[in-house]
Amino acid sequence: MQFLQNIDGDNRKKLNFLLDCMKDNVDTLAIHTFNWDFCKGLAYDILNSKSQTGALGNIALKRDDFRRTKHPIYSFAVAGKFQKELVVLENKGAFDNNSPFAFMHKNNAK
């Protein structure tokens, strides 16, 4: 996402730019919102645990058009066409066949 560095404005504007690039809800935007506190024995709260992988994910988590996937470590903030399919996944393992990673692989995500 190096090209985002060339866009004027703050991270909110950059996120809006990405959403504007999505065509009539036929695309899906998934932003990693990983958090490793669960590995340290801390509780995971799908609504309140912050992303430890960047400001863009935390901004997405505050928006109504994004929903978060359920995995306590490797979660994603998702908007667009496959949002419903991704947020209902019940994967226990981060990379299981029913994980967001597997879903993205099966659907040729870019």
Automatic annotation (TrEMBL):
Enzyme type, top EC level: transferase
One Gene Ontology term of the molecular function aspect: aminoglycoside 3-N-acetyltransferase activity
Family in the record: Belongs to the antibiotic N-acetyltransferase family.
Acyltransferase among keywords: yes
Name listed for the protein in its UniProt record: Aminoglycoside N(3)-acetyltransferase
GO BP: response to antibiotic
Domain of life: Bacteria
EC numbers, comma separated: 2.3.1.-
Reactions accelerated catalytically: a 2-deoxystreptamine antibiotic + acetyl-CoA = an N(3)-acetyl-2-deoxystreptamine antibiotic + CoA + H(+)
Keywords: Acyltransferase, Antibiotic resistance, Transferase
